[in-house]
Amino acid sequence: MSNQPALSTAGLGLRSPHVGEVIASRPAVEWWEVHSENYFGGGEPIAALERIRADYPLSLHGVGLGLGSVDPLDPHHLAQLKQLIARVQPALISEHLCWNRDHGRFFNDLLPVPRLEGALALLASRIDQVQTTLGRRILIENVSTYVAFQNETCTEAELMAELVTRTGCGVLLDVNNLFVNTLNLGTDPLAEIARIPLGCVGEIHVAGFEYVEGCAIDTHGAPVCPEVWLLLDAALKRFGPVPVLLERDTNLPSLPELLDEYRQLSMHIARAHTEPALQAEALSC
Fold it and tell me: What span, in angstroms and rounded, lies between the C-alpha atoms of 222 and 229?
């Protein structure tokens, strides 16, 4: 098993109901991404992941570290992540730009970091701590947001760009999250893409959202919508042939159905690299 392999163009999120079938059938997927926390510790889950890693590159995607929390980072969580990295040697490691801890309480949500005075310094110090502990560069992912904060000093993309400069981290650009924020808050997704520096995007996510009581929610429970495909095109035109992941977490289809969606992603990426650049007006919402 080679160390830290480079990822090819299209990847797929691996979810537990499909693990056994993936091991048995070895489908034509270029690489898989898993949620890091699902494989902390020993037992059958990590043994199965090691069998998959023997045939495919992996990307580790964290959902529980909470980089933006005022509470200190959980040292046990970091230690488990470091052990997992040593076992499976992932090509990429990513975390959400969010917070989830306050005075010892843990929230099972990806809560957006208010972009107020002090946020940049806090996030930079936490990213430095993680990268130093792991001995690896991490990617930070933009999140879906359902409320706006007053007196914010920058956009999310501007914050990420500054964190890249200060810490040397990279960016995981989730274009579905960009579109959800557009629907809910009126943000400009193309302007956000333009604010992210060239050369720092190490991975892109696409997924589907659903409406709940009139609010667009990033459920990863539906096929990718046309507007998100257009945002993917715009991101690929700006950042080049970056690995792109298809996420699906709820309303999980059978593996053959999911592979059909994956093949759609592969074909879309191929077209995006040959067609002319998008016009901004094509992304009217």
Answer: 13
What is the pTM assigned to this prediction? 0.91
CA dihedral 15, 11, 180, 202 (to 10 degrees): 120
For residues 214 and 170, give the distance between their C-alpha atoms in angstroms, rounded to a whole number: 33
For 239, other C-beta atoms within 10 Å of its C-beta total 19
Could you tell me if residue 263 is inside a domain? Answer: yes
**Main-chain dihedrals φ then ψ at residue 204, nearest 5 degrees:** -125, 140
- For 175-222, list the strands marked E by DSSP: 201-206, 210-212, 215-217
Q: What is the pLDDT of residue 4?
A: 60
Cα separation values, 34 from 14, 18, 49, 247, 249, Å: 6, 12, 9, 10, 11
Torsion, CA 154, CA 160, CA 163, CA 168, rounded to 10: -160
Count structural domains, the chain: 1
Tens-digit pLDDT profile for residues 179-189: 999 999 999 99
- Hey, what are 55's tokens? 């045939």
Full domain range(s) for residue 242: 10-278
Q: Helix 175-185 vs helix 226-239: angle between axes, to the nearest 10 degrees?
A: 120
CATH code assigned at 254: 3.20.20.150
| Contact indicator for 100, 110 with CB cutoff of 8 Å | yes
CB atoms within 10 A of CB 245: 25
